[in-house]
Write a structure and sequence with these properties.
There is one protein chain. With 316 residues, the chain is of the alpha+beta class. Among the domains are: 69 residues, no CATH class; 149 residues, dinb family like domain (Four Helix Bundle (Hemerythrin (Met), subunit A)), CATH 1.20.120.450. Helices cover 43% and strands 15% of the residues. The strands form 3 sheets. Strands 1-2-3-4 form a 4-stranded antiparallel beta sheet, with no helix packed on it. A 3-stranded antiparallel beta sheet has the order 5-9-8, with no helix packed on it. The longest helix has 22 residues.
Length: 316
């Protein structure tokens, strides 16, 4: 998880200064001969400026639960994008022509005053021109702005695209399988030799963390402390809550989707130590088998809804 808040004394000062102008006119008597409408308007302007000083006094950026979010002040203006939709992000700056405030510019949305490039500063790096042809989100962090590009479907290895699509579908379906289950219901074993829903969900989530590591990335696995010392369900002594499993599932799924989007031909051809049936010992082979493994366990979870007295799994 990442969280950072930047505060802008300049923004507060400018808004407060703007609020003092109509207040000064009222207190000085300059509007004493004006009608009531003019005095009310002056008060309204002062109130709007004071509220803006509070609302835009800071910018908070967080990364958690597979999402990037940023908001101003208490969160009156907020934006959230899934990490899986981000291909790249890099610092950039605006020109004086971009102005200030929240508005659409020729390079995307600007959501706060941005610092202009000073003489002698290097110009921002150019993005991949393929990305320049795509719509994008842009935000500035009180002076520094970032362009956040959506994923490029054609940038993903064509052999990976259908596998990634299945993983995205399974990401949603597993959550649908757990819908309506309490922690107690999910730990029930409905017959001898049948695993519980909690065990299956935790196992398949754990396998995604393993797949992510196999593909050359890494993410802390919060389920390790529950599963690492257990080879079977009977050896699990402490169970994670379903909310813990769901959170871990979302995080690893977002990271896995991002990793698949940047995997090169050489990355996929790299050898792996693990042996999987029916595939070669490459990262692509491991991915192929573990996608099938993923789907196998989602099917098990869907079947366990019936003895739990729940409706069939939804595909929505």
């Amino acid at each position: 998880m990442y969280s950072h808040t930047q505060r802008s004394a300049a923004a507060v000062f400018l808004f407060c200064l703007a609020a003092l102008v109509p207040i000064g006119l009222l207190l000085s008597g300059a509007l004493s001969t004006a009608d009531a409408g003019a005095r009310i308007t002056a008060l309204a302007v002062a109130a709007v400026m004071a509220i803006s000083a509070f609302a835009f006094s800071s910018l908070t950026v967080t990364v958690r639960d597979g999402q990037l979010s940023w908001w101003f002040g208490p969160g009156i203006v907020k934006k959230t994008v899934p990490l899986s939709t981000i291909v790249s992000a890099e610092p950039t700056t605006t020109s004086i022509l971009n102005g200030r405030g929240i508005h659409l510019t020729g390079r995307g949305w600007q959501t706060f005053p941005a610092r202009h490039r000073r003489a002698g500063q290097p110009r921002p790096r150019h993005h991949d021109r393929r990305a320049e042809q795509q719509p994008r989100n842009r935000f500035s962090a009180l002076g520094r702005s970032c362009n956040v590009h959506p994923p490029l479907a054609h940038a993903m290895d064509p052999r990976v695209q259908p596998l990634a699509a299945i993983l995205r579908l399974n990401t949603r379906l597993l959550l649908n399988c757990l819908e309506g289950l309490s922690d107690e219901m999910a730990r029930v074993r409905h017959a001898t030799g049948v695993n519980s829903a909690t065990f299956i969900a935790a196992h398949v989530t754990d396998s995604r963390y393993f797949l992510l590591q196999t593909l050359g990335s890494a993410l802390e696995n919060p389920l390790s402390r529950f599963l690492d010392k257990a080879k079977t369900i009977d050896e699990v002594t402490t169970w994670p809550a379903l909310d813990t499993v769901r959170s871990a599932w979302k995080d690893v799924s977002a990271a896995l989707d991002t990793q698949l989007g940047v995997a090169t031909v050489d990355d996929l051809a790299a050898s792996v130590d693990a042996r999987f049936p029916g595939v070669d010992r490459t990262r692509l082979g491991a991915l192929t088998f573990l996608v099938q493994h993923d789907s196998y366990h989602v099917g098990q979870l869907a079947l366990l809804r019936k003895p739990a007295g729940l409706p069939a799994m939804s595909y929505r």
